[in-house]
Amino acid sequence: MYFTEEHKLFRKSLQDFLKKEVVPHIETWEKTGTIDRFIWKKFGDMGYFGINYPVKYGGLNLDLFYTVILLEELQKINSGGFAAAIWAHAYLAMTHLNAEGSENVKQDYLRASITGDKIGCLCVTEPFGGSDVAGMRTTAIKDGDYFVINGSKTFITNGYYSDYLIVAAKTSPELGNKGMSIFVVDRDAEGVSATKLDKLGWRASDTGEIAFDNVKVPMANLLGEKGKGFGYIVQHFALERLVMGINAHARAEYAMDYALKFMSERQAFGKTIDQFQALRHKAVDLIADIELCKTYNYKVAERLNHGEYVVKEATISKLKSTKMADEVIYECLQFLGGYGYMEEYPLARLLRDSRLGPIGGGTSEILREILAKICIDKKEYKPAT
User: Fold this and answer.
1) 374: phi > 0 → left, psi -120 to 50 → alpha, else beta; which?
2) CA distances from 308 to 8, 63, 88, 170, 304 (A)
3) pLDDT tens per residue across all 385 residues of the chain
4) How many C-beta atoms lie closer than 10 Å to residue 189's C-beta?
5) How many CB atoms lie within 10 A of CB 228?
6) Where are the alpha helices (DSSP H) in the chain?
């Protein structure tokens, strides 16, 4: 229904690329927490960063289901951290460059991001705010031909090694969320500093806490209109949440496939353990849950691909799919018994990596309140652009 022959050929080519260029390095990157720069350039050379971006800037301008394939296959090499670093660059930082950046910004930053020569990150979450975007304290006060940024951000994927930062800050603090704007800031700008955080999972990616101390940003680095930053952020949350929903069904599918293969080979009491009714029926329930989320996510992707504003549907996608993935992976680890608890088997890492799903990009508790406002209070969210 959603994938053409061209999509299938793209998936096969991507699988081959990941197997050859990425998989041999995953264990090293997981141990060091540093992804070598060469792989970013290889992704750029293959066009993977430009899948859904304009040809004018070096992109391919393909439909959203090529992105779906990229996200799914990244989940099946068993490094949530590597996958996160790639999609945070391509679908968080670059989304804002493309949607709100001026022509000069697109030429300087978006083009280099598509080629893999520059890596970006999105800086919204703050130490005191968490999911409360409107409550951010970082400010950007106009001073002549510059904005001066002061404040801090935390839990930022690519926040330590990236080349530029998409930063949300309040340009008119007295106006609350109506006084928020977004900027692109160079990593080497004076006053920018970062601390690398030590995480439970996503070990391959760098997650940073970033401080801004009187950082001078040229007015040309303002993205979109001053004071409309909150609207831009909320609008693009739809894509981010759908990305995380797709990630979730893909990693759950990967875990289930691995567990079924293990169960078909593991013997106990004279037969393979996939012949025990208790395990067979549990597996079927999990497979059904995966299929429900996967089918729903594909439908939401189709609507977003057609230009619909799917903030409610994407929020449901992330809420339900990340919960499902955690449950599936937990049970798949149980299917492996003691082997599931061993680091040399994939389920231990999968369990840790998956746990971030209901936390990052808006906690499940926040998502439920957003959905309550939409479904119960009849609040309407409209795109900012």
Assistant:
1) alpha
2) 25, 14, 22, 29, 5
3) 899 999 999 999 999 999 999 999 999 999 999 999 999 999 999 999 999 999 999 999 999 999 999 999 999 999 999 999 999 999 999 999 999 999 999 999 999 999 999 999 999 999 987 767 778 999 999 999 999 999 999 999 999 999 999 999 999 999 988 899 999 999 999 999 999 999 999 999 999 999 999 999 999 999 999 999 999 998 899 999 999 999 999 999 999 999 999 999 999 999 999 999 999 999 999 999 999 999 999 999 999 999 999 999 999 999 999 999 999 999 999 999 999 999 999 999 999 999 999 999 899 999 999 999 999 999 988 877 6
4) 16
5) 19
6) 5-17, 23-32, 38-46, 64-74, 80-88, 94-100, 103-105, 111-115, 229-265, 277-305, 311-335, 346-354, 364-375
Half-sphere exposure of 70 (CA within 13 A, CB side): 23
The amino acid present at 381, given as its one-letter code, is Y
Q: What are phi and psi of 139, to 5 degrees?
A: -120, 155
- Catalytic annotation, pick one of 240, 253, 313, 331: 240
**What is the distance between the alpha carbons of residues 168 and 237, in angstroms, rounded to a whole number?**
14
* Catalytic status, residue 253: no
Q: What is the DSSP string of 328-376?
A: HHHHHHHHTGGGGGSTTSHHHHHHHHHTTTTTTTS-HHHHHHHHHHHHT
Q: Which residues contact 97 (CB under 8 A, 6 or more apart)?
A: 105, 106, 109, 110, 113, 120, 166, 184, 223
Distance CA 107, CA 6 (A): 29
What DSSP string describes 199-253? -SS-TTS-EEEEEEEEEEEEGGGEESSTTBHHHHHHHHHHHHHHHHHHHHHHHHH
Residue 96, both tokens? 């804002």
In whole angstroms, give the CA distance from residue 196 to residue 79.
18
Angle subtended by helix axes 5-17 and 64-74, to nearest 10 = 30
